[in-house]
Amino acid sequence: MADTWQDFSNMVLEIFLRLAAVGRPSLNWLTAYHVQVPNTRRRVSGMCIDWLRLEMCVLTSLRFTTGHTVTDRKTGNGEDPLSLSCNPPPSDSLLGSRALVTMPARLLSDLRGHLQRHGWRWLCPPQRAASSDVQPLPPRAQVVICGGGIMGASVAYHLAKLGWHDILLLEQGRLGAGSTRFCAGMVSTVKHISIETEMANYSNKLYQQLEQETGVPTGYTRTGSISLAQTQDRLISLKRMASRLRMKGIPCEIITPKKVGELHPLINIHDLVGAMHVPEDAVVSTADVTLAFVKSARESGAQVHEHTSVNHVLVEKGQVIGVDTDRGQVECDYFVNCAGQWAYELGQSNEEPVSIPLHACEHFYLLTRRLRTPLEDSAPIVVDPDGRIYIRSWQGGILSGGFEKNPKPIFTEGRNQLEIQNLQEDWDHFEPLLTALLRRMPSLEALEILRLVNCPESFTPDMRCVMGESPDLLRYFTLAGMNSQGCSLGGGAGKFLAEWMVYGYPQDNVWPMDIKRFGALQSSRTFLRHRVMEVMPLIYDLKVPRWDFQTGRQLRTSPLYDRLDAQGARWMEKHGFERAKYFVPPGKDLLALDQSKTFYKPDWFDIVGSEVKCCKEAVCVIDMSSFTKFEISSPGDQALDILQYLFSNDLDVPVGHIVHTGMLNERGGYENDCSIVRLNKRCFFMISPTDQQVHCWSWLRQHMPSDSDLVLEDVTWKYTALNLIGPRAMDVLSELSYAPMTPDHFPSMFCKEMSVGYANGIRVMSMTHTGEPGFTLYIPIEYALHVYNELISVGQKYGIRNAGYYALRSLRIEKFFAFWGQDLDAFTTPLECGREFRVKLDKGYEFIGRDALLRQREEGVFKRFTMFILEDHDTDLDLWPWWGEPIYRNGQHVGKTTSSAYSYTLGRHVCLGFIHSPQPITPDFINRGEYQIEIAGQRFQAKAKLYPFSSLFTQRRRKEDLELGY
Ligand SMILES: Cc1cc2nc3c(=O)[nH]c(=O)nc-3n(C[C@H](O)[C@H](O)[C@H](O)COP(=O)(O)OP(=O)(O)OC[C@H]3O[C@@H](n4cnc5c(N)ncnc54)[C@H](O)[C@@H]3O)c2cc1C
Description:
- By secondary structure, this protein is α+β, with helices and mostly antiparallel strands.
- Among the domains are: 2-127, no CATH class; 140-180 and 287-358 and 462-520, FAD/NAD(P)-binding domain (3-Layer(bba) Sandwich); 817-837 and 848-962, Elongation Factor Tu (Ef-tu), domain 3.
- The chain has 23 helices and 43 strands.
- Strands 6, 7, 14, 15, 16, 17, 23 and 24 form an eight-stranded mixed beta sheet that branches. The chain has an eight-stranded mixed beta sheet with strand order 11-12-10-19-20-21-18-22.
- A hairpin with a 2-residue loop joins strand 16 and strand 17 (328-337).
- The radius of gyration is 31 Å and the shape is globular.
- The N and C termini lie far apart (72 Å).
- Mean pLDDT is 86; it is low at 1-6, 12-38, 42-107, 119-133 and 951-966.
- It binds flavin-adenine dinucleotide.
């Protein structure tokens, strides 16, 4: 007994020693508690004041006494006063002392846990402690969600809405006590990719009516937002954004600095060149939205258990079968990892780890006291990305935080930390943001700062959240790594994930967020730590076309990397792989010009132009080693059978033939677009886009019979791929192989193992990725340098040179080649992008997507991939298209572009994109329209084409022989 009492005393002492002399906060939420001391009649009672929904709790006027309980009536708030007794007293020096005690919620939680473990009994547990805490966990549930932050709560809410009621939500601390609790609550639709805007827009609409629906006040206030531009480039990026928002039907307007001043009384507008106003953006209390979600889910039957930690997920035969928690095991069919910054550790804790690449950084904002003339709650959110800050109204004062240039990652072995507490204040670190704030709102100089909030938030390698089903474990879903957008995206992301679980796929293309875009390679702690230090500032950095990440580079390289680098290669990265963009000729210092970072004509224009010219007139070599390569084989016909089932084209072709084909889903949409070579009767070589390595692998594995003799091998690392493009490619190769390479001897779309130079066993394929004539060589890596050297050496007399991906991109876009991940996705069918010729409906095999395509053939298509040639666009003076630009037909918005490039052949910009219509789209419909493409608010006339210009082709070949889109 004495021990437990001593423990308690020590605990109180610890709290006491953490006293922080904070000013008396306004009180808006109280929890009274009374604890019965075991085996005695003594009671301890207290009051926990949740301070403005931050995780700070305050015990007011704590007094230590000797031997008896003292009740202090100084709280003066009309509620039960605090009383806390401590016997024996912790130390003489503290006797009779009196202080305002700040107790972080985590300590309160520790205190409660500690007391419970020692047999203390809660007579009146804190208001937020779920009554289910004391109830045993159910032995099984259909789905277990780990994490009671906004994401876990949103998933539970949406699953329940979709009719799943056997849901168990487990939270290690209290609901919303992770990053959610500190959230600044801004719901902004201003996002960099369209699916994020879609999610945020949905969230905004949902939050608006959530209070009415659930009865839980959510603090939803429509404030609108103003994004400021201090530079012309920033204004261009806002104009591009405004076009995108309007496409989604979100009202928004580019406004003058004067108008900014009218919308917000405190903003200094003198350094502004313009701004974007989004009147429907809003603020909420994120913790309360979380509680509202939970309440609704509970009413639909979901069970919620706080103070319950998931230790790891139980797995059998690659599938989730349950969870192990600190309160026992629960069987389940589905598991959802919504563990916020803990998601990474939790993923790693399984016997078969799940890679969830995210890492937490400290994120700061300050709170001021109420202004003398209180700022209205409805004052717009202000985002000043050039100053790296955001500002919103808060309790008559302001809340302002930002994304600093030098973020502080925190290496959290998070499992042992139950609830996030306010981290150390770091005013030196916050100083640049504070300076930016005072510059933007000079009148705040005289203002009293209440406190600096510092809370971890998780960031991912590419600034997009991680969602979807694990590639390795069936029914293991994740929604985490919100990159400080969890409140804005929470509703929408939860909805998409719930749909994914219930229907088997999300209702829109979420590939940019799909967990399968990553592999284990992005999960190194060092990689993550370095990358998130770049990602956090990037949130407010100006993003010009073709920007690249600078950290985590040179992770995957071709054996030729050093050789190409020495020849002037400028690099970009895809799935960790370095790929040359273009080659700076000797003597030309591009870095000094620094015009690459522009919305206008970039400084590499002429360089890429000369690479394109060389591809068309002579021969170029492009290292394409990053492509994903698999081999599938079997002792019998199983390999052919499974591929015929998984792919829409006919793969029962003679040995040596190459087939371009789509890997479709049940809806007929592209899960992958690739080339398959029949190496022999029972072995196939599959070439896919670089970022398909995880997704395609997992799709194949999931559809392959588990008990067959099929062998699937990822051979990406085994081969260097060199693309030899141009009319002289055959001359170079025949000289090196002593074999005739003319189309008569080596027809297009054909593969032969040959010797090139001294190296034997090179897979030479008569296809390029550009629509130009040439070959691709798949070279075992140990021969790569030799073959490359030979090609360059023999190629000299044919004018050979290196080329990069920008040249390839220009060539493929002017040929109207679609690119998976950019133009094609799981919601686009071959019929919608004019690739019927790659679908063999009558090949004698059922294949996935066949029924959907048959239906679509009957009903017609309602969107159509189209090529647009810009007519009145001045390449030198006008803004360049990128992707995501609105397409107008006869003045009506009908779609958006998916990729664009300057065509050196046409001397014009070419955009590819989809036209949508409520009526089936026919070629006639396309041809009859007048088209415009809008670039940053300015519209340019465009000519629409459904087929590429035949004049672009230097050799007469069938379309299917030429097209390869990645
Ligand atoms: C200072 C700050 C300001 C922000 N402002 C904004 C904003 O204005 N707008 C916006 O959109 N976003 C904002 N964000 C981001 C937003 O708050 C987060 O993205 C969001 O709250 C993340 O929610 P979550 O559910 O993923 O994570 P969390 O809220 O951290 O929830 C994860 C939960 O999982 C629980 N958990 C972890 N492991 C286990 C386990 N093993 N067993 C059981 N439970 C477990 C944790 O206890 C935690 O409660 C801000 C973030 C910060 C830090």
